[in-house]
């Protein structure tokens, strides 16, 4: 029971990056909480952050082959631009949950459209880091 959590560009700066928008938790805090919760449910969770579109795509390709059952992804700014990440996710057979810390629909118009939502089975936005935990709970519930 393997799960992949993918974080897109600039999310390595969490905790210090616009905390009024993205919160005070670091990415490490978030990943630690997710790993712990997943382990409690008997799931093996792998976390990956990249500032590079191609690396995110490579990670999705690897997930197709290594038995990963679901991907929880915050594509960050690539949400709004990346047909390539959408195409990669379309080639992945498991579940896909899209997570955004902020409520993108309350923000600039360019954040209202998501390419990834064309593939995602579920979308969570605006709940901060709790959104990742909610996504994880949904995946583990089956
Ligand atoms: C984000 C929202 C995106 O619009 C933005 O580019 C991010 C983070 C979020 O988690 O709220 O980097 O995905």
Please work out how many helical segments DSSP would assign: 5
Shape annotation:
globular
For the record, the CATH architecture stands as 3-Layer(aba) Sandwich
The CATH topology: Rossmann fold
Largest sheet: 5 strands, parallel
The CATH class, by name, is Alpha Beta
Find the CATH superfamily: Dehydroquinase, class II
- Please state the structural category: alpha/beta
Number of domains in the coordinates? Answer: 1
Low-confidence stretches are none
Return Rg in Å.
14 Å
Order of helices and strands: EHHEHEHEEH
Q: Can you give the mean pLDDT?
A: 97
Roughly what percent helix?
25-40%
- Rounded to the nearest angstrom, the distance between the terminal CA atoms is 11 Å
Bound molecules: 1,3,4-trihydroxy-5-OXO-cyclohexanecarboxylic acid
Query: What strand order characterises the main sheet?
Result: 2-1-3-4-5
Q: How much beta, percentage-wise?
A: 15-25%
The tally of strands reads: 5
What does this molecule look like?
- The chain is an alpha/beta fold.
- It has one domain: Dehydroquinase, class II (Rossmann fold, 3-Layer(aba) Sandwich).
- Helix content is 36%, strand content 20%.
- It is built from five helices and five strands, in the order E-H-H-E-H-E-H-E-E-H.
- Strands 2-1-3-4-5 form a five-stranded parallel β-sheet, sandwiched between helices.
- Helix 2 (27-40) packs parallel to helix 5 and helix 3 (53-65) runs parallel beside helix 4 (83-90).
- The longest helix is centred in the N-terminal third of the chain and has 14 residues, at 27-40.
- It is globular and about 35 Å long.
- Bound molecules: 1,3,4-trihydroxy-5-OXO-cyclohexanecarboxylic acid.
- Residues 10, 74, 76-77, 79, 100-102, 104, 111 line the site of 1,3,4-trihydroxy-5-OXO-cyclohexanecarboxylic acid (DQA).
- 1,3,4-trihydroxy-5-OXO-cyclohexanecarboxylic acid binds at residues 10, 74, 76-77, 79, 100-102, 104, 111.
């Amino acid at each position: 029971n393997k799960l992949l959590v993918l974080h897109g560009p600039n999310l390595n700066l969490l905790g210090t990056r616009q905390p009024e928008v993205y919160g005070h938790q670091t990415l490490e805090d978030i990943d630690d909480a997710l790993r712990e919760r997943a382990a409690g449910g008997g799931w093996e969770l792998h976390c990956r952050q990249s500032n590079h579109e191609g690396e995110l795509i490579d990670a999705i390709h690897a997930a197709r082959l290594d038995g990963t059952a679901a991907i929880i992804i915050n594509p960050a700014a690539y949400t709004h631009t990346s047909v390539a990440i959408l195409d990669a996710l379309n080639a992945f057979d498991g579940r896909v949950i899209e997570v955004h810390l902020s409520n993108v629909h309350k923000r600039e118009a360019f954040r209202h459209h998501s390419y990834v939502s064309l593939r995602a089975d579920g979308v969570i936005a605006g709940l901060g880091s709790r959104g990742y935990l909610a996504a994880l709970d949904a995946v583990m519930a089956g």
